[in-house]
Amino acid sequence: MLIDNHNRKINYLRLAVTDRCNLRCNYCMPSEGINFAEKDSLFTIEELCKLSEIMVGQGVDKIRITGGEPFVRKDLMVLLRKLSTLEGLNDISITTNATLIGPYIPELKTLGIKNINVSLDAIDKNTFERITRRNQYDTVYNNLIRLIAEGFNVRINFIALENQNTQDIIPILEVMKHYPVSVRFLEEMPFNGGSKSFNSITWDYKKILDHIQSEYPEITKLESPKTSTSINYKIKGHKGTFGIIPSFTRTFCGSCNRLRISATGDVITCLYGKPRMNLREVMRGDNVESEIKGHILKSIGSRSKTGFEEQEKYDGIFENSMTSIGG
Ligand code: SAM
Questions:
Q1: Exposure of 129 in the CB half-sphere (CA atoms within 13 A)
Q2: Digitized pLDDT (tens) for each residue of the chain, 327 residues in all
Q3: End-to-end CA distance of the chain
Q4: CA of 101 to the centre of ligand 1 (A)
């Protein structure tokens, strides 16, 4: 079992399989993209399978596949097939922009993969296209509805972006009230490939909640798992639920059970910090299993208690993009 230096159990791995993405969301990276990693800097699919197996052997029981956009990797299903055979891995989740997932839906179902987070930051097509800088709205929307209809446990990630999409907060809840889906509103974080830096946000969780409450007074707060990053609510008459994730305000660090590994092998113990180490060459060296275990233990043995503490150590502005970190 993996326990960090603050006695928190680490059982949730967020594994980025690529840093490439076919969208260019303006809060995530500049229009020209970032300096994407060379192919040989990325883990191969065999390395990702091996790494996952080692991590599950260490007590990880939930893996979220993320990126970049996971489905830009043509061999992604090889990894997902492997994950579905790992004993002790109880939860395989995917975070996707839902542009490319369509052809894979039947096999995802066969593999028993249920939890899919779809990033959708607008319900209005023009707003979506302005934010993503691509015209993929219809594909994304159709795949989202298909995933819900096929019985996946779907959550929508919607970042509240000042002057960009907050006018869509109520409309997306109105459209989604007919579906068993959870719409989660996230605070914007300063990881956008260095295109803009900020120290405060207007649309924090309180403002998001006040805004929703002013439209729907009949809201009930729901019980959430201890390690949940979202505070969840039910609106009377809606089939699904909504949640708010204080990703900038960081009120959830105390129960953090996560570890991130990037597509190039960086071990990230907190979103607000620098990578602790890199595992790529370790994966390509000798005694892989024991070396990886040792490195992971060392990384989680020096975690900051909170994202604020980690940020203090960071020194300087955040220049990285969420497409390298995996969200
Ligand atoms: N391509 C996939 C997707 O679109 O969901 C997975 C990778 S994406 C980097 C993972 C998540 O990070 C998405 O939900 C995205 O909205 C979120 N994200 C990216 N940049 C962010 C930022 N600056 N603040 C908050 N969330 C961000």
A1: 9
A2: 999 999 999 999 999 999 999 999 999 999 999 999 999 999 999 999 999 999 999 999 999 999 999 999 999 999 999 999 999 999 999 999 999 999 999 999 999 999 999 999 999 999 999 999 999 999 999 999 999 999 999 999 999 999 999 999 999 999 999 999 999 999 999 999 876 778 899 999 999 999 999 999 999 999 999 999 999 999 999 999 999 999 999 999 999 999 999 999 999 999 999 899 999 999 999 999 999 999 999 999 999 999 999 988 876 678 889 999 999
A3: 24
A4: 16
Q: How far apart are CA 20 and CA 42, in angstroms?
A: 11
**Distance in Å, CA 132 to ligand 1 centroid:** 11
Which atom of ligand 1 lies nearest, measured to the CA of 325? 9
Enter the CATH code of domain 12-313.
3.20.20.70
How do 12-16 and 266-268 pair as beta strands? unpaired
User: Quick check: CB of 327 below 6 Å from ligand 1?
Assistant: yes
Q: Is 95 in the pocket of ligand 1 (CB under 6 A)?
A: yes
**Which residues touch 89 (CB under 8 Å, ≥6 apart)?**
52, 56, 60, 61, 62, 63, 83
Ligand 1 atom nearest to CA at 247: 25
The answer, yes or no, to whether any atom of ligand 1 lies below 6 A from the CB of 165, is no
Cβ of residue 186 lying under 6 Å from some atom of ligand 1: yes
